[in-house]
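Input record (one chain):
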Amino acid sequence: MPLIVFVDANVPCPADPNDRHVLAAAVGGKVDVLVTREREGALDFQRCLDQVDAGTTVLHVDDCLLMLADRHPALVRARYRDQIRYHRARLGLGEETAADLTLERLEKNGAERFAFRLRTDERFRVWGGSAGRESRLQVGVG
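The corresponding structure, as predicted from the sequence alone:
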């Protein structure tokens, strides 16, 4: 059975008409923040949502993750560690390889600056030792 979607005629059409349902959902759901992987799409979505005074802020995924890292570094660090553990368990990887894979996947999905922050900011350091990377994760979060 085909899916029929009705889009409010008051929702402006974005540059890519195939994205109109995203805007309709944002308006209909009265969302506060809409996150997208597409840089140009973010600007276009914001323009469209501003036309109807939706009160929605559109963020690129990289900007959203950087904002979270700035506001909640301990939480972001904990989730980063969880993702490393997940890759280790699921794929049988060592910690360093699992951490690299996590960062590579972030980069591939549009979060290049966030991945760079995780690599370089001491608040997100997950490797112990003063001489560089070791083979075990630090225990504390902070």
